[in-house]
Amino acid sequence: MLAVDKDTFEKEVLEAEGAVLVDYWSEGCEPCKALMPDIEALEEAYGDTVKFVKLDTTKARRLAIKQKVLGLPTIALYKNGEKIEEVTKEDASKANVEAMIKKHV
User: Fold this and answer.
1) Kind of pairing between the strands at 50-56 and 19-25
2) CATH number of domain containing 13
3) What pLDDT score was predicted for residue 25?
4) What residues are annotated to the active site?
5) Residue range 20-38: average pLDDT?
6) How far apart are CA 69 and CA 55, in angstroms?
7) Residue range(s) defining the domain that contains residue 80
8) CB of 57 within 8 A of CB of 26?
9) Tally of domains within the chain
């Protein structure tokens, strides 16, 4: 999974063609770290149609706020640079993320 930061987010997510899944997480977020293996498993399943990236929000707070990420974990799906759906906090489960991917891809 590609790690992006405030310098590469625009190029890798907002300027990307097609679907990009962004895993917003932080080192201090235990649910985020627990969810990471599930997101990586989804990348193996859907990586040929969806680009998977992760953003550590502790290093890009302003960017996270600008993207309206108000709680963690947040898994957002972008299409051609526009955020089309996201799952957050308790709803951020492997099943819900996979359902979101299937709905849009």
Assistant:
1) parallel
2) 3.40.30.10
3) 98
4) 29, 32
5) 97
6) 11
7) 2-104
8) yes
9) 1
Mean per-residue pLDDT, 34-53: 98
Contact call for residues 43 and 51 (beta carbons, < 8 A): no
Cα 97 to Cα 22, 35, 45, 75, distances in angstroms: 11, 10, 12, 7
End-to-end CA distance of the chain: 18
Q: Find all residues with CB under 8 Å of 5, minimum gap 6, and list them.
A: 55, 56, 59, 60
3-class secondary structure, 85: strand
pLDDT of residue 23: 98
Residue 67 in tokens:
């993207």
**Residue 3 CB contacts under 8 Å (≥ 6 apart), including other chains:** 53, 54, 55, 56
Cα Rg of the chain, angstroms? 12
104 SS3 class: helix
**Structure tokens, 9:** 């987010």
pTM: 0.97
